[in-house]
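Consider the following assembly input.
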Amino acid sequence: MNTRFAVATHILAYLAHAQPGQPVSSEVLASSAGTHPVVVRRLMSTLREAGLVQSQRGAGGGTVLARPAAEITLLDVFRAMQASEPDLFQVGSTNPNAHCDLGSVMQETLEGLFGPAIEAMRAALAAVTVQQVMQELGKRLPGGCTEASG
Amino acid sequence: MNTRFAVATHILAYLAHAQPGQPVSSEVLASSAGTHPVVVRRLMSTLREAGLVQSQRGAGGGTVLARPAAEITLLDVFRAMQASEPDLFQVGSTNPNAHCDLGSVMQETLEGLFGPAIEAMRAALAAVTVQQVMQELGKRLPGGCTEASG
DNA sequence: TACATTTGTAACCAAACTTGTTACTAATTC
DNA sequence: GAATTAGTAACAAGTTTGGTTACAAATGTA
């Protein structure tokens, strides 16, 4: 999920700085993120299901944010990416010893102990919005984030 | 890294409850973790380099904890697993657009914004020791964690 | 209507990664 | 010397990932 999370954030930050209501095509986004338009559209499917973006087909179509960038957090992105995937930590061995129940007990125990770690990370992710990402990008790109610059 | 982290924790918890100074063979550990002895030995290589365990070859050989279980945290395990691997979050796209520097800027920005999230998770992992994992296992395995039970 | 554009999605391929396995060497004990 | 056990290389099967092509559906425009 590594690159997907990063690419999704990249895309959302791009959409955040685009003209409001002006759809951005998967081709432009792919060019900016350095990937293939179909990869972007695949990602969009996930983001759309999560209610973070809206797309429109046809000429002049593309994708826009479904709500203000200030109301989309990195946790939303994280959850969207995670929804279609296994847990960040797949606790427990794959083939616990059938000969006793230590395997399943280990699973439960690790889940319980990892829980706070994951919760802490979620809280930190929830504190960052896509708007902040965009603003941070603006600071680091002195000339601003124009269409030509990615 | 999913299963490796879990299996490593499993192994360390097992070693923590073993007789102190009594080496445990990779075969026994593999049987408990439901994997292959060679997989365990591979993992041991990493844990040994991280200074968490010590091994001894030959008849009666095996592996013991290199320091008390109360002084080994899940963060130590996490770091050991991560040392030989890419970051948890590979921030930044794989192929940033060469045509401008948004790619690298995005990379820096995401690293800065994800930083607190990763730090929060690390702090939570550092708060849990292998001894706690072992004790938690003991609570959940009423009969205790005997050699026969995994 | 015809056509160009753009998304949605399936299908496929190649590369990378993971896990299990075999095989062999080195070290250690008896 | 024999048995045991770690260390490690090498390989195979399975899974995952990312990129790509192909094509249908939708939408705007002439």
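Chain B touches chain A through 61 residues (CB under 8 Å). Ask yourself how this observation constrains the way the partners meet.
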